[in-house]
Amino acid sequence: MLETLTSIAPLVWSALPVYLLVGAASQGDESTPALAKVTYPTERNIVMFKLNQVSWTIIALALSGVAQAQKPVVYPAKEQSAAQQQKDDGECYTWAKGNSGVDPAALAAAVPASAPAPAGGPRAQKKQQEAAQAAQQKTAQQQQQAMAGFYKAYGACMEGRGYTVK
Predict the structure, then answer these.
(1) Whole-structure pTM value
(2) CA 161/CA 155 separation, integer angstroms
(3) Distance from C-alpha of 91 to C-alpha of 138, rounded to nearest angstrom
(4) 59-105 confidence digits (pLDDT tens)
(5) With contact defined as beta carbons under 8 Å apart, do 21 and 6 qualify?
(6) Contact 112/138 with Cβ under 8 angstroms?
(7) Is the N or the C terminus of the chain less surrounded, counting Cβ atoms within 10 Å?
(8) What is d(CA 85, CA 69) in angstroms, rounded to the nearest whole number?
(9) What residue spans define the domains of the chain?
(10) How many CB atoms lie within 10 A of CB 154?
């Protein structure tokens, strides 16, 4: 079994195989180095890696949208009871939903459609991936703007009922 890599040079993509110097551990002899062949990724592996990068980008965008469009914090300014605040919260939620045309529950439940498997050569696949990423970014931005409009309406309703909204 090979120990951890003792040294590694920057990987350079070329047509020749790369061999790395590693410590031999088969018989406990740490002084005898061994060569380990590093295989190059196939075109399929490269495409899958790029798709994985796109997926993580989409997740990051979705999480950033959640962080930016959060429900405002509401404080009772006129000594409203907890029961009254809960009632007002529900009524303002319903009012904001109707006034803004946005249903936060439906937006949260909406799962973005997955992109079809890339077809064609590497350039065509790259263009397809970029187009899919741009479309998903646009969708995330539109959802974020919709939620901002909803929370603005919600905050206005709660302020009108005598609450401090932050």
Answers:
(1) 0.53
(2) 10
(3) 31
(4) 655 555 444 568 899 999 999 999 999 999 999 999 999 999 999 88
(5) yes
(6) no
(7) N
(8) 22
(9) 2-38, 43-165
(10) 25
